[in-house]
Design brief:
Length: about 300
């Protein structure tokens, strides 16, 4: 049975359908990306799952218990960081952890948690939060989300404002927790980062789920493409088109897709006395796959 099961959820803001029959699942130990354009309904969905937002119909089941706006029991085993963490300027990191642990019976070990989230060094424990950088605040937010030893952690845009090293460290932390069995539901606009992290994707558009898939399945939307620099790019584009392949010229490179394999492309181009100067195979790009799926959905396909 899935750890989180969201079934046929609806939510309206006036006439606006923010969630329209939303259904998806999250399995233990899986990192799931909730992905979609601005205003698609990601935050609303995350808020509903964490019991912060009411919904008009459907059900949310987490770890065998129902989650509603009025039933928060299940949240004992769920952590979340939605937008910015609630941080008090005059408290230290350790004081925050003690504060957030107050209403939980078996909190995580503070020292271990601070080590895991890298908030143990540099006198972090003794400094007041008003002196923290954005990255430090974000790491503290993640530590707070982990205080209840959660089975599921919900992170809305957790990489916002972080420098590349902090993003890298955060990815490592999430992956190691997932390997221990913790599940994650993450939304982010940083698709390159998500691509390196998530196991499954849930794609949302205009309040509707338009696809749920493993990352590998999802990549099948993005056809294999070859990017070439040649001695005569215009001729290479024409030649590819005459073979029935899709071909465009993009920033000085010929982009070819639709051929059966790379050898076909090389043979045709070499056969026309055009020299290939560089060649790259491009496949499995989350951004490209997402744009393709959203474009088909918006066309009503
Ligand atoms: N409290 C609210 N009152 C009225 N409309 C709302 C409210 N919260 C969200 N909406 C609307 O519901 C829709 C979904 O919003 P939501 O914030 O969930 O989208 P999102 O996918 O998280 O977008 P973003 O990526 O921009 O954060 C939007 O059209 C938004 O304007």
């Amino acid at each position: 049975m899935a750890l989180l099961e969201v079934k046929n959820i609806d939510k309206n803001f006036g006439k606006k359908k923010a969630m329209d029959n939303i259904s998806f699942t999250v399995n233990a130990g899986h990192i799931v990306g909730l992905i979609g354009p601005n205003g698609a309904g990601k935050s609303t969905t995350m808020r509903a799952v964490t019991g912060l937002m009411s919904y008009s119909s459907g059900s949310i089941n987490f770890d065998g218990q129902s989650v509603t706006f009025n039933n928060h029991q299940a949240l004992d085993r769920m952590g979340n960081l939605i937008e910015y963490p609630s941080i008090y300027p005059n408290l230290t990191a350790l004081e925050h952890l003690k504060l957030y642990a107050m209403d939980t019976k078996q909190p995580a070990d503070f020292k271990e948690l601070m080590q895991k989230t890298q908030i143990d060094g540099d006198n972090f424990g003794k400094r007041k939060a008003k002196n923290f950088s954005l990255g430090m605040k974000q790491r503290l937010g993640i530590a707070i989300a982990l205080i209840r030893n959660p089975k599921l952690v919900i992170l809305d845009e957790p990489m916002n404002g972080l420098d590349p090293q902090s993003v890298h460290d955060l990815r490592g932390l999430i992956r190691s927790l997932a390997d221990e069995g913790v599940a994650f539901l993450i939304s982010s606009h940083l698709l390159d980062e998500l691509q390196k992290l998530v196991d499954d994707v849930v794609i949302i558009n205009h309040g509707k789920i338009i696809e749920t898939a493993t990352m590998t399945e999802f990549f099948s939307h993005d056809k294999v493409r070859w990017t070439l620099a040649t001695s005569n790019n215009d001729a290479a584009v024409q030649l590819s088109k005459s073979n029935g392949w899709d071909a465009t010229l993009d920033e000085g490179h010929v982009q070819v897709s639709g051929a059966e394999n790379l050898q076909q492309v090389i043979t045709a181009i070499n056969g026309a006395d055009i020299q290939i100067q560089s060649l790259n195979t491009v496949t499995g790009n989350l951004e490209k796959s997402l744009l393709d799926v959203l474009a088909s959905d918006d066309k009503g396909e």
